[in-house]
Amino acid sequence: MARTGRPKTELTLTGQEREQLVRWSRRVKSSQALALRSKIVLACAEGVDNKDVAAQLGCVVATVGKWRSRFVAQRLDGLLDEPRPGRPAMISVAAVEAVVVATLEETPQNATHWSRASMAKRSGLSKTTVGRIWKAFELKPHRVDGFKLSTDPLFEKVYDVVGLYLDPPESAVVLCVDEKSQVQALARTSPVLPMMPGMGERRTHDSVRHGVTNLFAAFNGADGTVISSIHRRHRAVEFKKLLAKIDDEVPDDLDVHLVCDSYGTHKTPAITAWLVKHPRFHMHNTATGSSWINQVERWFGFITDELVRRGSDASVQALEADIRAWANGWNQDPQPFIWTKPAEQILESIG
Hints:
CATH superfamily of the largest domain: Ribonuclease H-like superfamily/Ribonuclease H
Distance between the termini: 50 Å
Strand order of the largest sheet: 3-2-1-4-5
Oligomer: single chain
CATH architecture of the largest domain: 2-Layer Sandwich
Number of strands: 5
Number of helices: 13
């Protein structure tokens, strides 16, 4: 005789409960856990078996049984997260829900994002309460992150570049090459006031521009050393000088694999002719809009943070001397960057 399992308590919904569950189930930006629980109850109310509900919603049978039983015992309140120990809440769950939903799914009138004051005015709560709700749900409307999606139809170039990082060829050196152009020599209009206890370093907001220079660099992915050169102009001529410097400094018995972007100065006829005459050089171009994959960009970030951004130079010559000294100091104790993410994960995350 076939086993039928334990009989399940009949699950029926009132009109008000069904309306509330449907509203919760349509959450696509917030409270997705509550949305899933609501979908489970709605499906069970239609008489669907627990296994079929689990298959339909992509969860396990135990999850379906848990929320079915909890709804039968506690109705709508059973689908909400259990309260934590402590002082009884002074604000209703509905009020908290309204703040969270509005923060995630709406924008204020005549503004691009919510502030505590504007949300307090909308919800009728105090600014302090709004701040506590946002902190509890880790909501930060004042912050914004940027991203860039490559439009290169050959974005699969990432396999080539990441392959060099994760499995570099034998008897070869992998160099990440790029230029930090238009580095400005800025001098503050007044002397910088040094840091003191309880007071940070102070400097004037205005500055005097004394010209610009361009930093060309080749970052060695294996040991972190950098081959660099500084030029006043940013042309293919200067890029070819960097290639010649790399050719002089890299042992003759090693092939040279260069990771660089598709900037025009890297693909001129003069550069192409130079590469033909130096067959040990192999170019690997990153996809358009994907400079983040070039490790030398991280090195440029270090020199920007530690030298350029807060530097004060009265001439281009002084700036160039500072850059050379910083690069020499880096090569005294180089720090290679360890690449760990395979190309498949990168493509999956972008997809």
